[in-house]
Amino acid sequence: MPAAPLPDRVDADGAETDPREDQTEANARAIAAAETFRATARRQKALGSLPLKTEPGPPMTLGNAVAAKVRLIVWCRDCGHQVEPVPAEQAQHYGVETAVLDWRGRLVCSKCGSREIDMVATGTRR
Predict the structure, then answer these.
(1) Residue 72 sits in the same domain as residue 115
(2) Contact (CB, 8 A) for 48 and 36
């Protein structure tokens, strides 16, 4: 069955238009707007005027981890041993003001003795 021809449209002046032409014009306007946006962003970046989304805050401490109720998942990069220490116990032992990254630097794998430790702090519950 042959495709039906597209109906003609009438513009504000009463002239008939093809709807495919309207789509082409809309695409051209969208492309021009995107190019303008990209050019503006490149100019701002070149001038160093792109603002940060948010200012970085202080590093998380063990006390912050306890207050935020995050899980600390720690693993050894050498042997793969993984543990989830209780943040409150760690804060009590190392101090609530100890930065989590500093605390990680003190850790030693209880299985192989390696200091190649990695970790993640997550808010998801087990």
Answers:
(1) yes
(2) no
Tokens (6 digits) for 81: 């041993």
Which residues make beta-bridge pairs with 74? Answer: 83, 119
Percentage of the chain exceeding pLDDT 90? 52
Q: Which CATH number covers residue 111?
A: 2.20.28
Question: What is the reported pTM?
Answer: 0.56
Structure confidence by residue, pLDDT tens digits, 15-73: 555 555 556 676 777 787 888 878 877 777 766 655 667 778 899 999 999 999 999 99
Domain coverage including residue 107: 62-122
Same domain, 68 and 38: no
Residues 72 and 108 in one domain: yes
Specify whether 40 is located in the same domain as 75. no
Helix (H) or strand (E) holding 72: strand 71-76
Looking at the domain assignment, is residue 54 inside a domain? Answer: no
